[in-house]
């Protein structure tokens, strides 16, 4: 994917690096490598460069339409990083799309004269590193391994091999990761079948996204939730409800709150999952959507317990005991069971109201955590 000011040198660089990448991959894995140029719409740069997640959205579209299992996007523009000064590559394991920038293959302080051979070797090593990450290989401690951590571009110079164990793991993971099945007939049946069939992969992707970290990226949601539940806890009707509600009614309310809140957050932060021109849905799209939904659900569970513990602490350590016993109409609200019902009710209200405010949080920040936590 070339920028508007690209020249023939970029095409030569990517062609040479792709040839090296193809040779290594095809010799050791039953993978067919296809190279093509993207001639789609131009992207607008943000304040610190082009957003990697915009490339990933394009990658999802191209991967779906071309029916590809994996996609490595190589561009010569500056790609903005979420937590670093610059970005060399960003493999997204949930979407099986990796974004690679050639802009920083020669780092600051190095001789900036053209070095086509060095650039080619570094780009090929970076492509192999990203492909290994898409196949769920862990980082290696050996600097000569393609899966070594890349701190600066110089680290790419020593990467020369995969181990036999890594090749075996890649061969084992390929059938699971290369989801190239597309819907025929009922889309709903296809989605349900492959959602349950890929449940381990969906859970692995959701846990890898780190729900606790996602929760820290939702300050507007947390502020909205706290502003609502703090007002409610000082209302007598709330204590009446907590003292009188049955556990089955409370459970229905909590579950409904989770479903509604997750749907709102999913619509706000998920990628736009597309179908082919023929209306077919890919299995990888089902896995991506499932992992996103589960990750957001786990995030809400974390926030639910956080709000619940906080409200229970307010009830026990802040609220006057005589008021607990006399405020409600006909039941004693000073019991442990009443306190737990009140905390659960307020926590459910918190995630429900907070999801409405949380949708205003930065989409790029949350998406970075969900889809692009593995920055290189």
Outline the structure in words:
With 376 residues, the protein is mainly alpha-helical. It is built from 14 helices and 5 strands. The chain has helices spanning 8-28, 52-66, 116-134, 164-177, 187-197, 199-208, 211-216, 219-233, 236-244, 247-269, 283-317, 321-327, 336-358, 363-371; strands at residues 50-51, 71-75, 79-80, 89-92, 97-101. Strands 2-5-4 form a 3-stranded mixed sheet, with helices on both faces. Helix 9 packs across helix 13. The longest helix has 35 residues, at 283-317. It starts with 7 loop residues before the first helix and ends in a 5-residue tail after the last helix.
Which helices and strands appear, and what pairs or packs with what?
Elements: H1 8-28, E1 50-51, H2 52-66, E2 71-75, E3 79-80, E4 89-92, E5 97-101, H3 116-134, H4 164-177, H5 187-197, H6 199-208, H7 211-216, H8 219-233, H9 236-244, H10 247-269, H11 283-317, H12 321-327, H13 336-358, H14 363-371
Parallel strand pairs: 1-3, 2-5
Antiparallel strand pairs: 4-5
Helix pairs in contact: 1-3, 5-11, 6-11, 8-11, 8-13, 9-13, 10-11, 10-13, 11-13
């Amino acid at each position: 994917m070339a920028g508007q000011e690209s020249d023939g040198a970029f095409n030569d660089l990517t062609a040479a690096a792709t040839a090296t990448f193809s040779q290594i991959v095809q010799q050791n894995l039953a993978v067919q490598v296809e190279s093509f140029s993207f001639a789609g719409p131009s992207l607008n740069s943000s304040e610190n460069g082009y957003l990697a997640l915009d490339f990933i959205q394009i990658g999802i579209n191209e991967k779906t339409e071309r029916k590809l299992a994996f996609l490595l996007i190589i561009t010569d523009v500056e790609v903005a990083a979420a937590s670093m000064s610059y970005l060399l590559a960003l493999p997204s394991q949930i979407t099986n799309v990796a974004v690679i920038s050639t802009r920083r293959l020669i780092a600051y302080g190095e001789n900036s004269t053209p070095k086509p051979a060095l650039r080619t070797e570094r780009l090929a090593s970076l492509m192999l590193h990203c492909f290994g990450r898409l196949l769920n290989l862990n980082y290696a401690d050996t600097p000569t391994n393609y899966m070594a951590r890349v701190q600066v571009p110089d680290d790419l110079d020593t990467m020369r091999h995969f181990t036999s164990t890594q090749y075996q793991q890649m061969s084992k993971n390929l059938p699971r990761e290369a989801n190239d099945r597309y819907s025929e007939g009922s889309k709903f049946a296809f989605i349900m079948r492959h959602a349950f069939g890929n449940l381990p992969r969906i859970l692995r992707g959701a846990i890898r996204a780190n729900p606790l970290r996602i929760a820290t990226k939702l300050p507007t949601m947390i502020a909205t939730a706290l502003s609502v539940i703090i007002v409610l806890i000082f209302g007598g009707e709330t204590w009446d409800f907590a003292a009188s509600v049955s556990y089955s009614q409370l459970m229905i309310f909590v579950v409904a709150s989770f479903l509604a809140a997750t749907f709102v957050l999913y619509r706000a932060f998920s990628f736009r999952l597309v179908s082919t021109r023929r209306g077919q849905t890919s299995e990888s799209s089902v896995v991506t959507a499932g992992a996103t939904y589960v990750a957001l659900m786990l995030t809400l569970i974390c926030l639910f317990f956080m709000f619940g513990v906080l409200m229970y602490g307010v009830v026990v350590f802040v609220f006057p005991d005589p008021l607990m016993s006399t405020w409600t109409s006909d039941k004693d609200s000073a019991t442990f069971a009443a306190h737990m019902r009140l905390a659960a009710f307020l926590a459910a209200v918190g995630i429900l109201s907070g999801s409405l405010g949380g949708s205003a949080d930065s989409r790029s920040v949350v998406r970075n955590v969900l889809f692009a936590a593995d920055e290189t």
